[in-house]
Every structure is written in C-alpha cells, then in structure tokens.
C-alpha cells in the first residue's frame, strides 16, 4: 500500500486535531505548536472515544471524556485511566499535501 493524501497542510489549525480515515483506519491528525504534523490512532484505549475531539497541549492529545493524555510522538498514555498506547503513524509532507500510509507505523525507538 502507498501513502494516501488525508489533508492539505494549509487546512490544519495549529494545536488542534482533526479526524481522518485511511482504508478504514481512523486517525487523529494534529499540527502541534512547533509546526510538526502527527497522526495517532483516533480511538482512546480507555473507551470508544474519538481523540480528535480532544484537546491538544504541546505534544499531547487529551481525551475529552476521561482526561487521559497521549503522547503525539509515542502514542503512550501519560496518565490514567488509559494504560494502553495508541498507534502512531508515519506522516509525509509533500508540498501542501499530508500523506499517511496506515500500514507504516512511526519508529518510536
């Protein structure tokens, strides 16, 4: 599978998340305050809640329902009640296009 366009970079708002879907895989797409674009799994691992509806703070995305914050870099939860990470996807910027391949996870090591 190859990377697919999910949004225009110019459409993203800083420190905000949007929900995108690639081949049935829901993702939260975030432009952080440093201008970096992140894509993480959109479903909170504590409950079936869309993370894209949450709050961006620096390099974290907080679930609006129960307050678990996830690292945009590693997908790891930073506080309870969530204790399982969400997947983190590799993002490619090509001009104004934001591309993601849902089969390629970002190397977080």
UniProtKB/TrEMBL annotation:
Pfam families xref list: Rieske
Taxonomic source organism: Microbacterium aoyamense
CDD domains: Rieske_RO_ferredoxin (cd03528)
PROSITE patterns reported for this sequence: RIESKE
UniProt entry keywords in alphabetical sequence: 2Fe-2S, Iron, Iron-sulfur, Metal-binding
Entry annotated with the keyword Iron-sulfur: yes
Name of this chain's protein: Non-heme iron oxygenase ferredoxin subunit
Domain Rieske: 4-100
Cited InterPro entries: Rieske_2Fe-2S, Rieske_2Fe-2S_sf
Gene3D superfamilies linked: Rieske [2Fe-2S] iron-sulphur domain
